[in-house]
């Protein structure tokens, strides 16, 4: 006569087997023997810059002066750019929604120039860097709040279209 717990015992053994198998595949993924998501990023691409370096710096309200954190980010960007001397970049300036369109276009332009000038001061060839201002036209956050506005006050470094291989 079969035990009423035979099916339950089989399920428990199967579950234990699956857990061990899952653990061993996780271990294989972390020991470098299989690819992880970061290894799928092609070096010298926008994804590489965004993921491994950080592609943006932020500004205080109505300001164009780089903060210490922004300078640190741009220093990492400059080092990364030097690894890929054939690449060119656009430095995009942005502003939050407050202020007129014209004012914010000018403010975004000054922010992009501030970031470019800092990169050049670190040895990046200025001919590799173009600036563009989007003012308040390309927000990353659409809420009318201090936290959201802070995300929109930025300069973003973009690998130029068609650059590199």
**How many helices?**
5
> Which oligomeric state applies?
single chain
Secondary-structure element order, N to C: HHEHEHEHE
How would a textbook summarize the main sheet? Answer: 4 strands, mixed
Low-confidence stretches: 8-37
What is the alpha-carbon Rg in Å?
A: 24 Å
By DSSP, the count of extended strands is: 4
User: Which strand order spans the largest sheet, edge to edge or round the barrel?
Assistant: 1-4-2-3
Span from first to last CA? Answer: 70 Å
Shape descriptor reads globular
* Class computed from helices, strands and strand pairing: alpha+beta
Helix content: 40-55%
Mean pLDDT: 83
How large is the share of residues in beta strands? 5-15%
